[in-house]
Amino acid sequence: MDRLEEYASENNIPIMQKDGILFLTNYIKTNDVKRILEIGSAIGYSACKMALVDEDISIVTIEKDEVRYNEAIKNIRDFGLEKQIEVILGDALETKIEGLFDLIFIDAAKAQYIKFFEKYKANLADNGVIISDNLNFHGLTLNIDSIQSKNLKALVRKIINYKKFLMDNKEFHTEFLEIGDGIGISKRI
Ligand code: SAH
Ligand code: MG
């Protein structure tokens, strides 16, 4: 795991922060989560961490970048977790996933979060939870006026918009936690 953390940091791959992943794995343990869908595998770091909580846990994780996908496959094999984790290469907005999950973890392109949420809520078990990462976007959502780059500003606006979407949602109630880079926990009302 240290090696994966190092690799991610050297290659600018935004894997979950330490307190974020600790929260997530504890949540899985405490709530007896068994079926997980992850949007955004990167190199398989969070998927391996979650799978290691219990050998009964199964994970489907989607990654659209082929280089990262290959890296994820290799890392998952190194940990001997290939029976627990299925990695799908593709754009999560175009992938069809069957079945229901106890936890859906959204950790991919920030501009698409509403779309991921709307698409994958159909795959959420009745008592399931959707957890979204990076809702503070490295603190930038609190400081939008100080951002110079137009593109970055637009992206930060999208995240603020996603938070608003969650706050106003009639179907789901969301708790926002200041953990890692900001986490949202959404459950059906
Ligand atoms: N969950 C990982 C980090 C994911 S980083 C961890 O904590 O270890 C976000 C990843 O989402 C990137 O690798 C990016 O390529 C991928 N991604 C972005 N948009 C996507 C999409 N539409 N479908 C699938 N993967 C996507
Ligand atoms: Mg993230």
Task: Write up this protein.
The protein has 189 residues and is α/β, with parallel strands linked by helices. It has a single domain, classed as 3-Layer(aba) Sandwich (Rossmann fold). 36% of the residues lie in helices and 23% in strands. It is built from six helices and seven strands; from the N terminus they run ααβαβαββαβαββ. The protein has helices at residues 2-10, 18-30, 45-51, 66-78, 113-120, 150-167; strands at residues 35-39, 58-63, 85-89, 101-106, 124-133, 172-177, 183-188. 36% of the residues are buried. The model has no long low-confidence stretch (mean pLDDT 95). Residues 14-16, 40, 42, 45-46, 62-65, 68, 91-93, 107-109, 112 line the site of S-adenosyl-L-homocysteine. The site of S-adenosyl-L-homocysteine has 19 residues, from helix 3 and strand 2.
Q: What features would you highlight for this structure?
A:
single chain; 189 residues; alpha/beta; Rossmann fold; seven-stranded mixed β-sheet; 7 strands; 36% helix; binds S-adenosyl-L-homocysteine; binds magnesium ion
